Amino acid sequence: MSIESIVWALNDAPIPRDRRDASSLTVVLLGLANHADPFGRNAFPSLGTLTRYTRLSERSVRYAIRALEDLGLIRPADPDIVAAYVKRADRRPNGYDLAIERREPVHNSSGGQTLPPADQHGGQAAHERGASGDATGGKHCPRTVLNPSKNRPSRERAPEARSRPECGQCDARPGDPISARVVWLDADRVRSTPCPICSPAVTR
To answer: 141 pairs with which residues across the strands?
Structure first.
């Protein structure tokens, strides 16, 4: 296995992207690269091995190998090297050398979106948007921006809750509203009742 050959097959092999079989060619080439040396030479996996790697039929693997040869991405390897590894002539697979000297031109192939300009927020234009287009007479509306003073309820206590002091008979803490001032009816603090001194109107 050669990392150099695998990296070439994954990133730099000039397989035309507009071919319908581009993905099949890529996985077969990757299977060959898995058996090549660092220079892309002497890859001779069997058809059964390539079929197992690629999950393709044997016929599809044969077609992909022919297409890779036609594209000049692989070429026959030295048969003597294959013979040195596989003694029986009737069991020798075809060997291939990868043309790792051929590389695809560098370009942005990620297919992702580029970053928005600095004057845009969240990938959208910062100018006003319309509920419908100008052709339909839609009204423009500004972008929705959270404003804590308008969109969220205030956490300030009611004036009467701040102004009424604690009675000392309940569990009231400074700043607690009157509704939170209770007297516990048991030691486990399970049952409670509103404080009759702080909120007499509630206990009537």
So the answer is: 129
Global pTM exceeds 0.85: no
- In order of their start, the domains of the chain are 3-98 (1.10.10), 159-203 (no CATH)
**Alpha carbons 193 and 202: distance in angstroms, whole number:** 10
pLDDT, tens only, 34-70? 999 889 988 989 899 999 999 999 999 999 999 999 9
- Residues contacting 71, CB < 8 A, separation 6+: 14, 15, 16, 25
Going by C-beta distance under 8 Å and a sequence separation of 6 or more, which residues neighbour residue 36? 2, 5, 42, 43, 96, 97, 98
Evaluate whether 32 touches 96 at the Cβ level (below 8 Å): yes
